[in-house]
Structure formats: structure tokens, C-alpha cells
Amino acid sequence: MSDRQYPAPVQRFFRFFVGNSVVERILISIAALITAVIVSSLIVLAAGYLSGEAYNPLEIFAVLVNGAFGSPFDLDSARLFTEGWSPVNFSMGTTLKETTLLIFAGLAVAVAFRGDLFNIGVQGQLVLGGLAAALALVWVAPFVPGGLVGSLLLIPFGLLVGAIVGGLYGAIPGALKAYADANEVITTIMLNTIATGTAFFLVSAYFADPTLQSVKTKAIPDVARLNGIIFPQGGQFSLVALVLALLATVGVYYVLRYTSFGYDLRVSGKQAKAALYGGANAERMVVSTMSLSGALGGIAGAMWSMMVIGAWRQGVPSIGFDGITVSVLAGNNPIGVIPASLLFGVLKGGSNAINFQLGVPPELVAVLRGMIILFIAMPEAFRMLGNRLGIKPSQAAVTGGGGDE
Amino acid sequence: MAQTTQPPEDDTGGGTDPGPAVKMENITKRFPGVVANDQVTLEVERGSVHTLLGENGAGKSTLMNVLYGLYQQEGGTVYLNGQERNFQTPQDAIDAGIGMIHQHFMLVDTMTVAENVTLGNEPRKWNGLAYDAKSAREAVRELSDRYNFDLDPTAKIEDISVGEKQRVEILKTLYRGADVLIFDEPTAVLTPQEVDELFRIVDELTEQGKTLIFITHKLGEAMEISDDITVLRDGENVGTVDPETATRESLAELMVGREVMLEVEKEDSQPGETALSISDLVVENDNGVRQVNDIDLTVREGEVLGIAGVDGNGQSQLVDSVVGLEVPDEGTVDLYGEDVTDISRREHIERGMSFVPEDRQARGLVMDFDLVENALLGNQYDPDFTSGPRVDWEATRDHAETIIDRYDVRTPGADTASESLSGGNQQKVIVGREILRDPDVIVASHPTRGVDVGSIEFIHDQLVELRDEGKGVLLVSSKLDEVQQLSDRLAVIYEGEIMDIVDPEEVTDRDVGLLMAGEVPDEYGGGNE
User: Fold this and answer.
1) CA-CA distances (angstroms) from residue B23 to A82, A138, B40, B115, B215?
2) A-contacting residues in B 168-227 (Cβ below 8 Å)
3) pLDDT number for residue B402
């Protein structure tokens, strides 16, 4: 357990990250954000110089933020705010849509991390959860009355199907780890490929909408979709979904902090031997943690089908992988997943605007996005790595206790 | 950096520079919230064995880390052979002839003894292009012979015993030219035989003029081996004494700051019905080797059954099978007549079995969690601390505070992380939690290992009190005096078998020692139960 076996510079490096309080971590994140802005500004200037365009980094970041929220600021005139701006607008909807999906994916990864499991398979759980939800809704909707009653029945049903299928698909790598000692990192990566392939095959062979050329299921009936409330129709964002995401965050926080199951999960994640000593069943904990993680991923998939596409089609965006970064950014804290997802949502929503309004190539915008994520995620990633290496925040905590290790 | 590729010449002491080998004057070292060393002065004579004795957290290791250059003191001066020296890094200290043998070995398992000893100061050949394995081996062999270390330079670290690994560590410091050797709790990881071997080596080293500093909290070994004993308490030097005139009691009193009962006082036991019964128990390891070989034991209500033995003779496997952490390969464990062999660990807890594990930092406590969260470990499904699936954190906090109060846990509060407590206080948290569960049977595995004297007394009293309340106590310990004093019946385990069950009042140390070594004493009255 001693941290002496690592060279002093390594220890010093990780110790800087390991010992921080929550406030310090937030401050570090903000400092990282500022650094990222400065460094990417230099890249923008360099890229502009090389390509002969005059890119203005300040303008780019202004448009990034402004674009993400539907131009609340008037950048062209002396007035600060745009006249008649309302928070309910298309761009805001896009940003919040991304945020909502990422909250679920981020929670899925965070739950697994808290149990010391690395679920890279959220993407696969999301793909299959989304497909199952779409198919189930297409199939069941005709038997259910329309109108509000129908929506109240079908939407929870669709999400439930997504959660169950995603959960079962998460349980597979869990069981493989618990009972066959197969590393979940490897199995979940493989299961991602299997999920994508299986979904593609099922839809193209059996469930494709015959009127379409593409690999896409029949459309989910309107009554079963998460339609825009308040936010404009067609904006692919439903406020209901965001509210559900926030509720899910609180729910996950509650489960981890206030239930016996959550206690077992956290102890298993911190110290597996102590969990066994305390009466937790190691195998069952791995399977149930992965199932819970998969279920959250499945809900993300169901939301994508029911809110964004209105069906299931091939080419599911990499929400599940982004969830990993979101979770790391959030320090695997469920509550932290909300701002982390929002940051991602802003970056995604705003980058379109940069391209449209300033003609900056999308590749360069992607570089900027990547820089910001990298800078903010690294301190947390170092912290996790330091903890994993067993490096303690300082030598000060215990003195002279050499005899008790 | 001095690249010592040849072993140094002996410093046979004396010489032109009299005075102490090491002198530390008014050393003060603070950590946030604690003064670890408060104006500590220490003088170590050349060629002597000087023991730093103190409870966990008394500041012994801190003081030595200042000497070794790991910490920089806020006040005070370090003198080496009369010259003022303050080391910025351990490398500075090593260059000046100080070596430290840590409790946790820093050896590369897959490399040989010679490679490990020379690592960092390798002899080279071909103008420094290649490692000169031959001269490394010879240098190590020569050093090993000179001090009678009995080490094979070509043996791989992974193949040698713990005691031998420690000797490799010592050799490493000698190879680098150390004249002053600091041993940090060197006996904590050794078997009794290996301790004897270490003490022989200690004599060898001092005879050849080396100066040795021993960090320990064990009274017995301090008295056995030292020329001088300096006792630290709460970061202060409370006295340097001569082991010839000191007694265990006087040393304990100095360490703890009050009178300590080293002997356990207890009434005769009043055994009742059988609480725990172990029959024909067999535990095999992955290779099919029997680590517990056909053990039968019973623990009755109101008695302490002690299990004595050298570590690694199957005690851990036996205990794990009894408390539900391992399912034995054969045999049964009954709790009040009910077969509990196959039931889960949680059910064991629910049926009233408490367990003080030997490895408190891996099992008994979650080091990152505060004491409130640790008070819940094992109780997380107990209706007293939950309502349905929900944890009642209020009740848990009250419980943590009860443990802190009743078991005299020295901590700033219940919200303190358990890793910042000293070993003794960590152990008190576990013992308190396990006893307050109101068990029928308690299994205590090395309950006082690494615990300071004051806490040992307290934990012993608690176990005896449980016994007097009519609980069954199964006590496993490698400390002979501990099991002898606490047990009503004493079983000796050797290579997974119970050699005999003896009356601890009647049996002699020598006979128990022989049984622990797997021999049946001659003219020996005892017999199997």
C-alpha cells in the first residue's frame, strides 16, 4: 500500500491531483478550461496563418457560446443582448438534446466506475436498448389508445424496454467477469461490435421499413414519441426527457449514497476485500452494477430513438463513448455528470454555428472541441490513475505508523 | 553521487573523530494539524544499537525520515560524526553513509540477489557499456560472507524467504557504504525464528562497527537487542533509558504515559454449551495442497479458544472458512448446532458471528471512508441501521459516535477518514463495531497486531469481557504471550493440523514452542482432547 515504490517525480505529479478537495477540483477544471481556450486560440491563429484566412479566436469562442444558446448576445452591435431573444429556440434545443443523452450515458459509465468497473460497452447497450424500444413501440402502439393516455402508457413502456434490454446486455459482460474472470474492458469492447452488427442485421433483414432504402425501422407513432414540449417541434428535443435525465441523476445519487445496495457498490469499488468482509456478494455486485449501468445506457438509446430519430436507424452517434469522457470529467460523481454533459452539449451545439457563421472548417472546430475536452478531462483522469496506483495525497496523514501495514 | 562499486572499508569506530555517530538536536517537524516531532534530541553512539520505542504515531518514523532526508525539519540540527549535516534527499543521506531498511521491501522479484543489491550502483565492464554480473556476484558474496548473511547471490528474490529478503535489503545498504543503518519495524514481517536470525545479524553488524537504529513499538525486542532505548510519546522524547535497568512495565509506562497492565486479569471461565463446532475441516489451495488438514475444534459459550502458531500454518484459511469468506473443501462448521458451512458471509453476520480480521486496512475498514461509513460495514442490512433498502445514516452516525466514545478512538471526529487514524485506533474502531453488534461468537484474528501497548490492554479486556458475558471467542494470534494469557484452552496449529490442545496455565513456553514447530515434546503430559 505504500507509495514509496514509485519514483519521486511520479509521486509528486500524481499527488498534486489525488489530494484535491471538490472545490479545488472545480477550480482546476476552470483553470484547465481557460488554458484550453488560450492554447486552442494559438492553434486557430496558426491554422489561419497557414491557410491564409484571418480567423479571430475571440470571435470563434464567442460564436461557440452564442451559437449553443441561440444567440443571446448581440455580437455585432453595441448592445449586449439580442433583442427578443428567448431561451426557447432551436439551437438551445440542440444543445439540450445532446446534454440529455449524455447525462444518461455519463451516468451509466459513472455507476460502473464507482463499482471499479470500466464499462466501455455503454455504446452497445445504447444501440440495442434503442432498437428494442423502437421495435417494441412500433409493435405495441396500435393496441394502445391514442392521445395523452396513450403517451403516458407508451413512453414509459418504451424507456422501460430500453432499460431492460440495455441492462441485460450489460449483465453479459458482468456475468463473464464475475463467473469466468473475463476482463470487462475487453468483453464490452467486443460486445459493442456485436451489438452494432446484430442490430444492423436484424433491421436490414427483418424490421426495415419497406418504403425506405436505408436501414431504418418503421417510424415510431407520434403518440409514443418524446415530442417537443415548449421547445419547437422538429427540434429533436423534449423538455420531458431533460427532466427525466435530471431525475435519473438524483436517483443514481440517491441509490449510491442512501441505499444498502449503493453502499455495497461503493465499498466493492473502493476495496473489494472489505466488501466481502462486510457481507457483499462479489459476483452478484459485479453483475448488478453492470446491469444498472447497461440499463442507463439502454435508456439513452431509447431516448435517441424516441426523441431524436423517431425510429431506429443505423449509424447511432457515439454517445456511449462520449459518456466515458463525461463521467471522467465529472469525477464519476452523478451530480457532476450534469455540468459535464452540458459542457459537451454546448461544444456540440456551438460548433455548428462556428462553421455556418464564420466558415471555419469543421475539422478545425473538432480540434478546438477536442482540445477543450482533453484539457478539462486530464486532471480528473490523472486523479483516477493516481488513486488506482495507490498514491496517497500526502505523507502527513499518518506519522510513525509504520508497524501497521 | 558517489558511485560505490566496491564495498567500503570497515569503519571500526573510534578513529580521530570521537562523539556520537548521529546526533539530532531539537528536531521539530510539523504536519498540517500535528506536531510530529517536538524538539526531539537523540544521540546515537557509534557501534551501538539504539532503539526508538513508541506507540504508533509517536513520531519515530518521522524522526528517522528527517535523518534519512525524506523530510526536512522545521527546526533543529542533524550532526553526523560531529559535523552538521542536513540531507535534502535520501540520496544525500546514502552518500553520507546512512542506510534505511524499510518495512516494505523494495526489491525486484524477478531479479537475483546480486542484481538487486547492486541496482543503481552496478559494477560495469567494457568501459561502462555492460553490467558486470561476475564482479557483482563476487562483491555480494564477499559482503554476505563477511557478515554471515548466508545468502546465495544468484538466487531470485521471488524464491527466497521473507527473512532472506530483509537481509538482501540490509546488504543493499552495506553495499552502498552505509555505516548507520536504520531499521523500520524490522520484525513486523518476520517469524520468531527469522527474528532470532535477524538479531544474530544485528550483533554481527555492531561487532564490525556499524551503528544501528531500530524503530519499534515492541517492548520485548527493544529490551533484548538495544544498548540504549529512547522512548518517544506524542512527538516528544520522554527519556532515554538503559535496557539493563529498565523493566517492561517502566517502558510501557513511559510509552503510554500511564500505568499499563501487561498481564491480563481474568476469572476462571464458566463454559456453557457448544457455540461453534468445526469438524473434519479441510481447505485446499489451488494446487490441491491441504492448508487446513482435518481440523476439529469446538468453542463453547463463555470461553476463549486460542489458536497459536507461526503465521502461514493455515490460520487464515481456517478463519476464513469459519466466518463465511471461504467454503471449505471438506468438513462442516456448526453454529449452535446449525450447519453454516455453505451459507453466505452476510448470513454469518446475521446469525451473530462477529469477526475481527487480521488485515484491518484491506478488510476491516474502507480506508477512504470516514468512520460513519465504516461503522456501517457489515451492518448495511441490519434493520437497526436501515429501513427497507434505505440506509439510516442518522442511526449509523450515532453508532459511530458510540464506538468512538466507548472504545476510546482518538480521532478528530466521526467524519475523519479511517486512513488518517493510527493503527491502534483503526483496530479499536473494528473491535468496537464487531463487539457492539452483540455477537454470539466472535472470531478475532491477530487482534493486536501492530497495535500500541495501551490499545492492546484495552482490546484484551474487551475480549475477556465478552467471554464473561457468555460469548464464544475464537482467538488466533502468532503472539504466544497473547494467546497464552487470554485463552482458556490453547490449540497449537502446525502445517494445517492441530498438534494438540493444551491448558495455557499448565503448559510451558518451551512445549508450546516445540508444538508450533511441529514437534511433540518428550515427557509430555498432554494428549488430544
Assistant:
1) 75, 85, 11, 34, 16
2) 184-185, 188, 215-217
3) 95
The answer, for B69 touching chain A at a CB cutoff of 8 Å, is no
Which member of B56, B185, B365 has the closest CB to residue A274? B365
CA distance B321 to B280: 12
**B483 close to A (CB below 8 A):** no
**What's the grid cell of residue A293?**
449501468
Q: Is residue A374 part of a domain?
A: no
pLDDT per residue over A206-240, tens digit each?
998 888 888 999 999 988 888 877 776 566 888 89
Confidence of residue A394 (pLDDT cuts 50, 70, 90): low
Which of A259, A265, A284, A399 has the most B C-beta neighbours within 10 Å, making it the best mutation to test the interface with B? A399
Residue A310 maps to which CATH number?
Answer: 1.10.3470
Among the partner residues A4, A278, A398, nearest to B380 by beta-carbon distance: A278
Distance CA B185, CA B174 (A): 19
Whether B423 has its CB under 8 Å from any CB of chain A: the answer is yes
Please check whether residue A398 lies inside any domain of the structure. Answer: no
Give me the domain span that covers residue A263. Answer: 89-345
CA dist A99 and A93 (Å) reads 10
Does residue A37 lie in a domain region? no
- Domain count within chain A: 1
Measured between alpha carbons, how far is residue B378 from residues A316, B436, B445, B466 in Å? 43, 12, 17, 19
Q: Do A399 and B386 touch (CB under 8 A)?
A: no
- Listing from the earlier edge strand, what are the strands of the sheet with B75-80? B34-44, B22-31, B75-80, B83-84
Partner residues linked to B489 by β-bridges: B305
Which residues touch A288 (CB under 8 Å, ≥6 apart)? A174, A261, A265
Answer yes or no: do B346 and A273 touch at CB < 8 A: no
A260 interfacial to chain B (CB closer than 8 Å) = yes
| Binary contact (B365, A276; C-beta < 8 A) | no
Q: What is the ipTM of this complex?
A: 0.81
Distance CA B451, CA B442 (A): 19
CATH number for the domain formed by residue range(s) B274-516? 3.40.50.300
- Under CATH, what is the fold of the domain B22-256? Rossmann fold (3.40.50)
A-chain CB neighbours of B34 within 8 Å are: 396, 399
B26 touches chain A (CB under 8 A): no
pLDDT, tens only, A154-207: 999 999 999 999 999 999 999 999 999 999 999 999 999 999 999 999 999 999
CATH 3.40.50.300 domain residues, chain B? 22-256, 274-516
- The answer to whether A2 faces chain B, any CB pair under 8 Å, is yes
CB contact under 8 A, A260 and B61: no
Task: Report the distance separating Cα B213 and Cα B199, nearest Å.
Answer: 13
Question: For residue range A52-92, what is the model confidence (pLDDT) as tens digits?
Answer: 877 888 888 888 888 888 777 777 766 677 777 777 778 88
Task: Number of helices (H) and strands (E) in chain A: give both, helices first.
Answer: 14, 0
| pTM as predicted | 0.75
Does A397 fall in a domain? no
Q: Please give the average per-residue pLDDT across A298-308, as a whole number.
A: 96
